[in-house]
Request: fold
Amino acid sequence: MCNFAHKFVEKLSKMTGRHFRLPTETEWEYAARGGQKSKGYMYAGANDTALVAWQYTDSLSSHHMPVATKRPNELGLYAMSGNVWEWCDTPYAPCANDQGT
Reply:
């Protein structure tokens, strides 16, 4: 699987001479759920997606939405719910106790 994010990381690594990589799905989920500071929210930072994520109906007038205008999660990370497959190095695999992050 190769997408824009993978290509960007490869190019960044070549340009800087340093090794960069995308997180695994497990690393992403840990960060999205708030790590050790987790409050057990259903989504990354809240139980209501409207508080933490732009939704399809929000973007009908524009495909580009302002950064950091929704609530961050417990680790201060924004927009951690949704489109995870684009930003992970490993494919998404649902867990038996998956709550939707």
Observations:
- Residues 5 and 87 are 6 Å apart (CA to CA).
- The mean pLDDT is 83.
- Helices lie at 4-16, 25-32, 49-52, 84-87.
- The longest helix spans residues 4-16.
